[in-house]
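Sample pair:
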Amino acid sequence: MGRTIVKVPQMPWYGDTELEIDFPDLWDVEVAYMHGHNAPPLNDEGIRKAFANPIGSRTIGELAKGKKEVVIVFDDMTRPTPSAVVIPYILEELALAGIPDENIRFISAPGTHGKMNGIELRKKLGEEVMGRFMVYNHNPYENCTPIGFTSRGTPVQINSEFMSCDLKIAIGALVPHPLVGFGGGAKIIVPGITSMETILANHVRNGLFSPSTPIGIIEGNAMTLDNNEAARMVGLDVKIDAIINLKREITALFVGEVVAEYEEGVKLAKEHYATDMIEDCDICVANCWAKGNEMGLALRRADPVLAPGKAGEMVLLVTTPEGQINHYLCKRFGKKLGGRAWIPRTTLPPNTKRLTIMQSYADRAGIEWIAPIDAVEVMKTWSEVIQVMEKRYPSKVKVAVIPDGTIQYFPSASASGQSLRSEDRSADLTKVK
C-alpha cells in the first residue's frame, strides 16, 4: 500500500529544516496551508524601499541627525523575526547620520519570558552585533522608569536604559496573537521592555481574564489600544515589522511610526497568515514551528478543524530543543506554585478528545503548560505516532495537517465566534492584584 507524504517546517534557529510525515493512502489527508506560505522573500531592493519610505515617519537617517544615544530593541526567541537580516540597514542609516558605535546599544524585549543567553543572542542578532555593540537583557523586576498612566489606568514603567536614549528603534514581526489579534507594533514595548507591574496591569485590565477580540482582528482591541498609547508615551520613534513565510524569510517589511506601520502591516498580515478551514476532521496534525516553544497556541487554534462527536484526535509536532518558554507571569513554578496569572490547565479544547504530542526533546513540565498531563500521550518520533494511529484507525478517516499551527489562523472560525485564544480563562482577580 502506498503512502501520502507531507513535509512541514521544523527547527527554527537550528537550521530551519523539514520534517517528513507519512500517512496511509487509505486516509483522506488535506494540508491546510496559510495563504502566504510560499510568498517570495524580499530582496535587497525591497528592504531598502521599505526603509526609504517609512509610514507616518521620517527615515531613520533623518531622525538620527543631531541625536546622541540610540537604542535598538528586538524580540526574543519566542518570535520568528530574523532580526539579523534588517539590522545592517538600520546601522547603515545611523552611520550616515554620524552616530558612533559606542553610542548604539541593543536591548532584548522578552516581556516575562526571562533573559536570552549568548547563543540565542547570536542566533537573533548575528555574530557581528555581539562583538561590536553592547547588548543587554531587559529585567522586568528592576531598573524601570515610571512615566505615568495610560487612559486605561495602566502604570507605564519602562526600561531605564531605553529611556536614556534620544533615538528609539524597535524590530519585530507581525504574526497572529490570541490576545491582541496580531503581535508586532507596540507589543515590543508592552510587555516587551516594561515592568512586571505594567505587564500585569495591562494584561488583566485588557483581556487576559475576560473575553478578548478574536485572533486576527485588532479593531477595538483594548490591549492593543493600551499598548499603542504606552508606546507613544515612552517615545518609540520607529518600529520595523516583518511578515514571514514558512521558511522564516521576510516577505514584506513595514517601517515607520509604531501605530501607523502596524495598522498598515496588519492589512497584509490578515490575508498572508489566513488559512482556509478544513472541517469535520477525525484527526488533526498541527505542527508547532515559528512559535514551537508556545505549542499551546497550535492546540487551541487547530481545535475547530476537528468535528464535534467524531474521533477528535489532535497530534502536536514539537521539535524545539529549548523546550517550552519560561513565563514568569503565567507558568507553573512548582506542583502548586505559579506566576501571578498562573491557572492550572484542567481541560482540553472542546473538540479535542485525545491529545498526542510528538516531543523530540523531552519537556514534561512544558506539557503542563498547555494541558492536564494525564490527558496527554507523549511520543518521541513520527514513526511511533503513525504506528499507533494506524492501529486506532484501520479504515478511512479524514485528516488535516496544519504546517504551522502557531502562526496560522482560520478567519472563518474567528468570525463565527469560536474561541481561538490560548485559553478561555476565569479567575479570582485577587490572585493577581
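The first strand starts at residue 3 and ends at 10.
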